[in-house]
Amino acid sequence: MILQSHIPYDVSPRDLPGISPFDPAAWLDVDDAYAAQMAERIRLLETREDEVLQCAPEALPPAREVLDMVCENLAAHHAGFCVGAGGVTTPDGRTVTRDAARPLHMLAHLIQEDICILQKQGDEHILTGALLCFPASWRLDEKFMRPLSHIHHTVDAYDTGIEKRVQRLFDGVQAGRPLWRFNALRYADAALFQPRSIHDRRDQPKTGEEKFMRSERQCILRLPQSNAVVFSIHTYVVAV
To answer: Is 204 helix (H, G, I), strand (E, B) or coil?
Structure first.
């Protein structure tokens, strides 16, 4: 099991979509599960890359922009990283070579956050690129190149009103003024990689089996150059 010692924010329920602003300097978190989560991410890339990484050609420039932003954030705000022109040395002692041809692949070796890239096409944002090593009951192949409305249509509380509010958030988020929200659910299984098809219902744990709290810190950022939106997900799992 890969567990954090704590979740670094109050997980008391909020009304959807539960969005708040945050300081861009605090975008990325490097917590006490960093080494273990990174080892799991690398294992998934090596064994199930098609399930955890997809990038359409139009998403490549935004993905490179995200990589540059991540490297800048790590260099400025995380002392455990050594960021150079040729690559990055990580807190667990790995050296990750800079790879502009595969920016999402490089990100998977650097940070705990999963990264989704959404680009406006018509009236909606489309998921054109994603690094999703730690899915919580969804599958990337069923959401890739789909709009926001399709991505969330299996969420019980995601009605037409919430759908419109979320689309307005993605339309309105400004570069340098990111937003964040969280979810928090009880799980019987602490596994980080939990894909589930839209055709399969999630089994509800029996009373007493929900031994773990899983929470995603979800951040929404506007990329200033490409104008794409980044949806990043930092997954915490703690024992209840």
So the answer is: coil
On the question of pLDDT at 156 being above 90, the answer is no
Q: pTM value?
A: 0.93
Contacts of 202 (CB under 8 A, 6+ apart): 137, 196
Q: Token match 């958030």: residue?
A: 169
With a CB cutoff of 8 Å and minimum separation 6, the contacts of 145 are: 56, 126, 127, 128
Instruction: Please tell me the distance from the alpha carbon of residue 103 to that of residue 94, in angstroms, as a whole number.
Output: 17
Task: Give the whole-angstrom CA distance, residue 188 versus residue 19.
Answer: 27
Q: CB of 134 within 8 A of CB of 192?
A: yes
Distances (CA, A) of 144 to 56, 97, 147, 212: 9, 27, 9, 29
**Sorting pLDDT into bands at 50, 70 and 90, what band is 134?**
very high
Listing DSSP states for 87-115 in one string gives EEE-TTS-EEE--TTSHHHHHHTT-S-EE
Tens of pLDDT, residue by residue over 12-36, are 988 877 899 999 999 999 999 999 9
Any bridge partners for residue 231, and if so which? 116, 220
Instruction: Report the percent of the chain where pLDDT is more than 70.
Output: 92
Residue 15 DSSP one-character state = -
**What's the whole-number average pLDDT of the chain?**
92
List the chain domain ranges.
Answer: 20-239
Residue 204, CA distances (Å) to 133, 149, 152, 182, 194 in order: 23, 25, 20, 21, 14
